[in-house]
Amino acid sequence: MKKLLLSLGILGISATTFAQDKVAGAAMSKVRQSRDFLVIGFSYDGWASAPDSVKTKGLSRGFSIAFMYDIPIAKEHFSVAAGLGISSSSVFLDKQVIDMSNGNSNAVRFTSSDKYKKYKVATNYLEVPLEFRYRQYSDNANKGFKASIGAKVGMLVNAHTKGKNTLGGDKNIIKEQNKRFFNPWRFAGTARIGYGNIALFGTMNFNPLFKDNTNLDIRPYSIGIALTGL
């Protein structure tokens, strides 16, 4: 009986070890076959083509995350990818505010003001990105040189301003939410270059941030670091 139990124990340990090795092997296989399904970006954001009358300052910033479906194409090392993502951008103004209460016109108005210590214009988009990709190692996106170029379409889901100051010695925050002055769609070009799971990226709007009849041809852009994987 003891010999039987010992034999069964050895078989059980062997089976468990084999199963663990198989799971580990499958996990490592997936790692080796990573195709950058997840792309996370942290960026410095700015406004190109802004007139001299519009003044920004400080570390304006942005964040983006996208889940991409990578499809290899006929030529080795190349693929195309499409997906779904979200992005947010916060641009700080220098002693200026936007009049969000103007209900008689779609024209946005920047006015001088010392009311706030910090004042930002924030936008959030739901996006559909599309990329053409190159990888040095076609079956492993976790190592080697990588580059991509593409475009994305974004739908504006939120636009607001936020000002911070003190009132009676306490911190005071004023937030105004209004999408009526902003272009409801965003069309932007994208590019990314890097090694392994880290890359530099940039985006640039093809269309203005504000609606066409505002005569402000401000084009948002982002420059930052991207983390990729899965």
Number of domains: 2
Helix content: 10-25%
Just give the CATH class of the largest domain. Answer: Mainly Beta
Biggest sheet layout? 8 strands, antiparallel, barrel
**Which outline best applies?**
elongated
What is the CATH topology of the largest domain? Porin
Question: Could you tell me the number of beta strands?
Answer: 11
Overall pLDDT score = 86
Separation, N- and C-terminal Cα atoms: 49 Å
Strand order of the largest sheet: 1-2-3-6-7-9-10-11
> Proportion of β residues?
over 45%
Order of helices and strands: HEEEEEEEEEEE
The computed structural class is mainly beta
| Total number of helices | 1
- CATH architecture label name of the largest domain: Beta Barrel
Question: How many whole angstroms does the radius of gyration measure?
Answer: 25 Å
Unreliable sequence segments: 22-31
Short structural description:
InterPro entries: Beta-barrel_OMP_2. The protein is mainly β and 230 residues long.
List keywords for this structure.
230 residues; mainly beta; Porin; 1 helix; 11 strands; 13% helix
